[in-house]
Structure formats: structure tokens, C-alpha cells
Amino acid sequence: GENVEQHPSTLSVQEGDSAVIKCTYSDSASNYFPWYKQELGKRPQLIIDIRSNVGEKKDQRIAVTLNKTAKHFSLHITETQPEDSAVYFCAASDSQAGTALIFGKGTTLSVSS
Amino acid sequence: EPEVTQTPSHQVTQMGQEVILRCVPISNHLYFYWYRQILGQKVEFLVSFYNNEISEKSEIFDDQFSVERPDGSNFTLKIRSTKLEDSAMYFCASRGRRLLDTQYFGPGTRLTVL
């Protein structure tokens, strides 16, 4: 089955800096890659996703890149703000086998002002 | 904006007891899921449900677990005989009819087994 590895586990940046979180997946059949943000005690909330037919997607300060050949995808946050502090999870899904999301272990991002 | 809701927000139970966690998915969604998250760990898939039957389940979802859609709005997860290691946050999620539609998560039920 699918296995998703996520790095780093913690990331501390200064406000205004960029943050990059990387994930790799094992199942070449996976074709949907969402990123969720989870604040303490809250539900995971989708912030951006990418499908296998595109290599990059951007939404304001957030971007995701996908390299299907290498089986890795990354989240890029530019001009970080203190409210970006949260745990970020990447996930992968294979639409042929079903749509269960397999999550990485999460990255705790801390943005200090 | 419609949201997935879950009740209760926190459930405390004794080991060996049965618990039922309840979810109300977004009204026009067709696919429903349960995930769990042990404190400080990643979110883990338990089961997916479509057209009144389980479509996929993980190794975690053993005979102690069951799911049901008893009416047109509720989606439940039952744990028959809880164990200490069942203590976790349980999230319900739902998505629309398209295969790669976004999954929306509920606020979770924190289950504590004593």
C-alpha cells in the first residue's frame, strides 16, 4: 500500500521568510496530493491540492510542486506570517483503488515575529 | 459554507465498553470516511463508505469497528469493546460525487478510554 514520508518534522522560520515542506510517496498509482493545515485542537483544513496532470499550482502565498517521476511533492509558503504556525500534513490518494487519504507524519511550522 | 459536524466533541469511556461516534456529513456528499489521530501522531485512515457499504478499510479497522448510515443524514462509527489504545481523536470526512473532490473534515471526537 501507499506510504508517505514527510520532512522536516519541525520547521522554525522568521516572519517573512519562506518555508518548504517535502513529501515522498511510494505508490506510482497515486494521483491526488492534498495539503492540510491543522491548528492545535482543530480539524485538518485543506489549504491546497494538486493532481497528477499538473506540475505546479499556486494560491497567493502558497504553492505546491509535484514531480511524478521522482514521486515527491513539496509545499512552499512565502512571506510567512505568525498565523501560518500550525502542523501541516501532506497526503496522497489513488483514485483507482479508492480515495482513502494516506497522510505523512506532519510538519510543525513555527513562525516567529 | 456547509460543514461536517460530529458529536460528541469528547467521549470518556471505560475499557470494554461500546461507544458510538456520530457524524453528519455535508448534505449533498456521497462518500464518507473515518480517520483517527493518536495524540501527536499523523492522521490514519480507518474506513470509507459509499452507497451504503464499505468501499475500503485499513488494517486498523478490525472486527471491533463498524460503520453505519442509519438514516439520510447521520454516519456512525461504533467500537464494540474499547481498548486503551483506541484513545485518539476520530475525524469524520465527506466528499462530493467526483472521484478527486476534496475531503472535508469534521471537528473530531476526542475518545478517551480509561
Structure commentary:
The complex is a heterodimer of chains A (113) and B (114). With 113 residues, chain A is mostly beta strands. Chain A is 0% helix and 54% strand. Chain A contains no helices and eleven strands. Chain A has strands at 4-7, 10-14, 19-25, 32-38, 45-51, 56-59, 62-67, 72-77, 86-92, 102-103, 107-112. In chain A, the strands form two sheets. In chain A, strands 2, 4, 5, 9, 10 and 11 form a six-stranded mixed β-sheet that branches. In chain A, strands 1-3-8-7-6 form a five-stranded antiparallel β-sheet, with no helix packed on it. The radius of gyration of chain A is 14 Å and the shape is globular. With 114 residues, chain B is mostly beta strands. The termini of chain B are far apart. The A-B interface holds A 31-32, 34, 36, 42-46, 49, 51, 89, 91, 93, 95, 97-106 and B 31, 33, 35, 41-45, 48, 55-56, 58, 91, 95, 99-100, 102-108.
Question: What's a concise summary of this model?
Answer:
Chain A is mostly beta strands. Helix content of chain B is 0%, strand content 50%.
Which structural class do you get from the secondary structure elements of chain A? Answer: mainly beta
Measured by residues with Cβ under 8 Å of the partner chain's Cβ, the largest interface is: A-B, 25 and 23 residues
Name the average pLDDT of chain A.
Answer: 93
- Molecular shape of chain B: globular
> Could you state the order of secondary-structure elements of chain B as H and E?
EEEEEEEEEEE
Report the sheet-strand fraction of chain B. Answer: over 45%
Largest sheet of chain B: 7 strands, mixed
Q: Please write the string of helix (H) and strand (E) elements of chain A.
A: EEEEEEEEEEE
What share of residues are in beta strands of chain A? over 45%
| Total of DSSP H or I helical runs spanning 4+ residues of chain A | 0
Q: Give the CA-based shape of chain A.
A: globular
